[in-house]
Amino acid sequence: MMNDNSNFKDGLKGTSLFGGVSVINIFVNILKSKVLAILLGPSGMGVYGMFTSAVDLINKGTNFGIRTSAVRNVSQAFSTNDVDLIAHSVAVTKKVVLMTGLLGMLLFIVLAPFWSKMSFGNYEFVAAFSILSLYLLLTQLYDGQNVIMQGTKKYKNLAKSNVLGSVMSLAFSVPFFYFMGIAGIAPSIVVAAFVKFLFAYYYAKKGNIRTIKVGLRKVFSEGQGMINLGFYIALSGILTSLSGYVVRAYISNVSGLEDVGLFTSGFYIVSVYTGIVFSGMGTEFYPRLSSMTNDNGLFVKAINDQIVLALILISPLICLFLILGDIGVILLYSTDFLGITWMINYAMIGMLLKAPGWCMAYAILSKGSSQIYFFSELVSIIVTTALNIVLYKYYGIDGLGVSFILTYLFYMFLELFVCVWSFNYSLNWTIIKSVIPLIILPLICLVITSTLSDTLHYTLGVIVVCISLYYSYKRISSVIDIKRYIRR
Q1: Hey, how many other C-beta atoms are within 10 angstroms of the C-beta on 74?
Q2: What is the model's pLDDT at position 467?
Q3: Rounded distance, CA 129 to CA 140, Å?
Q4: How far is Cα 352 from Cα 264, in angstroms, rounded to an integer?
Q5: Which of 45, 98, 425, 443 is a good FRET partner for 73, with 20 to 30 A between their CA atoms?
Q6: What is the span of the domain harbouring residue 210?
């Protein structure tokens, strides 16, 4: 049990701010997915999935982990209160993201014929992939503005930028789907990225950071330091994206774009829905954990506290979605997507296993063990890719959901082994006992959904969801005054 409540409160604070942003972004993304599903159908979602998978792969390969390493540089400069040093750090960051963004754009243009052939078996989409090259430049510039706001602790501006950028990017991109159909997917992605960049640029400028010129020699020397720091993080991201692309390409060649669309849609729901918790905590947990690396006792306790908090927050969400089942899929997409219901249900259970593995992975990074982090991620990625292909081959779309469970079960034990081996991490019995109900309740919901008729399903399901909400509420209220916290 958490005797010192500071970890719990800090984690909840980060989740409140950026989790709130995630909620708004989720509604925007749900609406976008709904529009895509209605106007373009599963095949259109498949094309969208192949496009985003390809650009994400190159983006991970050419951003060199700048988002992570640059935040560290800017925040260190900001902590000195030296106006000149802050301006210098920001100027270097802007130049580095511009150069890496241009590199990504040019590389993607050159590879456009390759992506079209690999993704769709023909060269009909070369022009579309060429258009998407602009997305890589705009995304890197957008990340640079976010780095400035995060590094200078302008969290409210960062939140406003994310929300407004997300909402307005939807408004500007939807007409492309309506008037151009599948041909409008590539330009809509680019326009959305441009709108997000404009809002990020506007809110970053409100920080009133002085503009200075920095020579290329200085940019290259300091930029190399950023790239060295983020290299293994970036490499891990590349392989993760490559894994996703390989799986989508395999499905596309074996079964067609419709199954790619179902796969993309299903896991999009899972990642976005649970992103309320993970993205909110990720913004705050990593820097807080990094400040404790010299005290292993506090460090281990912070990890355990975060695991409990993650499960407390995510367990009721999973219970609710499991009980909604087909209703949730229809609300988010359409009846054409009912085939992904059980894939999503299985994947939701997998998210319970992701929570502890995710916390432990951040612990490895915060210790500065980037090589250990990379190799543990590499093993996990290989296992994930193999399981996805094998289980899809034999069990179809549902097999991908089962693969998600097995993947994160393996991931959790792998990260646990690495943490125990690297810094004597221990998961104590008190922690284990406290999270057992948070795992059992979603499993009960899964059984209810799979075995009972609609009337009993929803009746008992609502009861279990209420129990889950009440248990999570009591766990939180045992360490903080929830009513007072909400009022503040």
Answers
A1: 23
A2: 95
A3: 17
A4: 20
A5: 425
A6: 6-487
* Angle between helix 185-205 and helix 126-151 axes, rounded to 10 deg: 20
The answer to whether 346 and 398 are in contact (CB under 8 A) is yes
Q: How far is CA 198 from CA 143, 144, 161, in A?
A: 12, 12, 9
Query: What is the reported pLDDT for 86?
Result: 84
pLDDT of 440 over the 90 cut = yes
Determine how many CB atoms are found less than 10 A away from the CB of residue 327: 12
- Read off the DSSP letter of residue 299: H
Instruction: Please name which of 432, 271, 232, 473 lies closest in space to residue 354, comparing C-alpha atoms.
Output: 271
Q: Look at residue 174 and tell me if it is in a domain.
A: yes
Decide if 1 is inside a domain.
Answer: no
The answer to the question of residue 51 being in a domain is: yes
State how far the Cα of 319 lies from the Cα of 470, in Å rounded to an integer.
Answer: 12
Nearest alpha-carbon partner for 360 in 66, 49, 248, 369: 369
CA distance 325 to 342: 8
Work out how many domains the chain is built from and give that number: 1
8 A C-beta contact, residue 204 and residue 156: no
For the chain, the helix, strand and coil percentages under 3-state DSSP, each to the nearest 5: 90, 0, 10
∠ at Cα 283 (278, 285), nearest 5°? 80
Quick one: 201 exposed, middle or buried, by C-beta within 10 A (0-12, 13-18, 19+)? middle
> Which tokens is 445 given?
């919901």
The Cα–Cα gap between 162 and 156 comes to 10
Q: Which two tokens stand for residue 36?
A: 């895509």
Is position 413 within any domain? yes
- Of residues 14 and 406, the one with the higher pLDDT is 406
- B/e letters for 20-50, b = 16+ CB within 10 Å, e = fewer, are ebbeebbebbbebbeebbeebbbebbbbbbb
CB contact set of 400 (below 8 Å; sequence gap of 6+): 263, 266, 267, 343, 347, 388, 391, 392
Q: Are 277 and 317 in contact (CB under 8 A)?
A: yes
Q: Answer whether 190's CB lies under 8 Å from 134's CB.
A: yes
| pLDDT of amino acid 407 | 94
Report the predicted TM-score, pTM, of the whole model to 2 decimal places: 0.72
Amino acid at 18: F
Query: Rounded to an integer, what distance in angstroms lies between the CA atom of residue 202 and that of residue 148?
Result: 12
